[in-house]
Amino acid sequence: MLISFVSKALAAALLCGSAVSKRVELDWNIEYMLANPNGLNERRVIGVNGKWPLPEVHVNLGDKLVIHAHNKLDEATSLHTHGFFQNGTNFYDGAAGITECGIAPNSSYTYEINVEQTGTYWIHSHYRAQFVDGLRTVLISHPAREAYRYDEDVTLMLEAWYHRESEEISEQLLSTSERVRTAPFLPHMLINSAGGADLNRTKIKMTAGKTYRLRLVN
Fold first, then answer.
1. pLDDT tens digits along 84-107
2. What are the two backbone dihedrals, phi and then psi, of residue 183, each rounded to the nearest 5 degrees?
3. DSSP string, 24-40
4. Which stretches of the chain are DSSP H helices?
5. Taking the model in full, what pTM does it have?
6. If I label 141, which of 2, 65, 120, 130 is the partner at 20 to 30 A Cα–Cα?
């Protein structure tokens, strides 16, 4: 009797889990494009499917996040799910030169990431400093039941933005010339990939009496 009850309970749990958990599949063409997020300087960035900034990625606990990454760049690339432990799946960690070789130009690689944590994370390139050039986005993993009660969920991504590409900045910082290496260069500030006069787009309208959850990604 007890064994039968336990078996039925386990079967029900498995059925519930399979109904809730799902494969979240994304097909990403990683490619160059032009952007001018602060209205001061248009330059080449790395976008996905002809868009920059990249859209937020939302998953639920127990899901499997599947990203089909197609590299349309002229150099290797990779994707790192920042903050995910990747226990037993380090080959999907995206650390080029450590856990993978990087995705070669005109090649593809599929990441299959088990969602075993909840909270606010981000996905970014882990090849050289490509995330500086825009290959990054917010990843939010939702629990089955929220621990907090709130009316609205707001994400603020705080970003340093340079008018030069990351490769040029890296060459300066690695220069053997102290004069070149220590020459000042200042980042501009973006909030949710908008800056300059466009910072007005990031204003948050709040209503008295409501509760807001702020997710800060730096």
1. 998 889 899 989 989 889 999 999
2. -65, 135
3. EEEEEEEEEEEE-TTSS
4. 2-20, 166-173, 178-181
5. 0.85
6. 130
